[in-house]
Write a structure and sequence with these properties.
By secondary structure, this protein is α/β, with parallel strands linked by helices. The chain has helices spanning 44-56, 78-95, 107-116, 132-139, 164-182, 201-209, 211-215, 229-235, 243-255, 266-279; strands at residues 9-12, 15-18, 23-29, 61-65, 99-103, 120-123, 142-146, 189-192, 222-224, 260-263. α1 links the parallel β3 and β4. The structure holds ligand 8Y7.
Length: 280
């Protein structure tokens, strides 16, 4: 087994998460246009019920996003994104004992989400946005830096690398260095190769097989591939029929060294990871 979990604790506002065992992060999209569950959870009560379900199914983190990053998605304004996520963060924070991750690239949303009770920042843009490094540091929250080549609208148009693993690693090292310079502690940094973000199936597979290479950087790894196109490409299944593929990939990601697995289907993933842990 290659999973030497980094002995590690994340400080997520008032809550501490141990990364000695794998963590399942449940996805809660509050966008009207997400590709797999778009529009289902935009209102507060259904969002809370979904969060409760993921919590009781074993998710320790819930990732709340108000802007779709699927290929071709439109941008939303700061105000619109805040209207979508802040009331839901406040509600979940007041009702559930779970770490809330804010999936955003906007400095203003990071700041307001932290005030509303978020414990972690998940930025698919790795804090490259205007003022994002400073805003993230000021919150004191844990941060996930994800690799993306290009931007969501166009990133899947023929992405090219000379050495995908080295380039992703260099990018994440660079962004982690900027975080350290900004005053974000190393223990608060998580890295993510960004499956499907400016990558072909071959790139995704190469990265997946080399998680150990990224792990040498010394940061915990988050893997998000739930229901993604790469699973559809391998299994020839539409997005609503990718559960088995997603679970299998999650278990393999854990065995490959990932500490946090970001998924739609929490209960099934938790079981799969329990089996992988027990038998590895
Ligand atoms: C990822 C992500 C998405 C991912 C991290 C989807 C917000 C697309 N994918 N965040 N977000 N890693 N850290 O299919 O892979 O869920 S959105």
């Amino acid at each position: 087994m290659t999973n030497k979990a980094i002995r590690h604790k994340l400080q997520c506002a008032e809550k501490e998460i141990s990364l000695d065992s794998p963590i399942v992060m449940g996805i809660l999209n509050v966008t009207p246009d997400s590709f797999s569950d778009g529009g289902l959870f935009t209102h507060i009560d259904p969002a809370l019920r979904q969060a409760e379900k993921m919590h009781s199914d074993g998710a320790l983190i819930i990732d709340i996003g108000g802007e779709s990053t699927r290929p071709g998605a439109d941008c939303v304004s700061d105000a619109e994104e805040m209207d979508r996520v802040i009331p839901i963060i406040e509600k979940i924070h007041s009702e559930l004992d779970i770490v809330i991750s804010i999936d955003t690239s906007k400095a203003s949303v990071m700041t307001e989400a932290a005030k509303a009770g978020a414990g972690m920042i998940n930025d698919v843009n790795a804090l490259r946005g205007t003022d994002a490094l400073r805003a993230a540091q000021a919150t004191g929250l844990a941060v996930c830096l994800m690799h993306m080549k290009g931007e969501p609208r166009t990133m899947q148009a023929n992405p090219k690398y000379t050495d995908v693993v080295a380039q992703v690693k260099d990018f994440l090292s660079q962004q982690a260095k900027l975080c350290l310079l900004q005053g974000i502690p190393a223990e608060q940094i998580i890295i993510d190769p960004g499956f499907g973000f400016g990558k072909t199936l071959a790139h995704n597979i190469t990265l997946f097989k080399h998680l150990d290479e990224l792990k040498k950087m010394g940061f915990p790894i988050l893997v998000g591939a739930s229901r993604k196109t790469m699973i559809g490409q391998i299994t020839d299944k539409d997005v609503d029929d990718r559960l088995a593929g997603s679970i299998t990939l999650a278990a393999l990601a854990y065995l490959g060294g990932a500490s946090i697995i970001r998924v739609h289907d929490v209960a099934e993933t938790v079981d799969a990871i329990k089996i992988a842990m027990a038998l590895s």
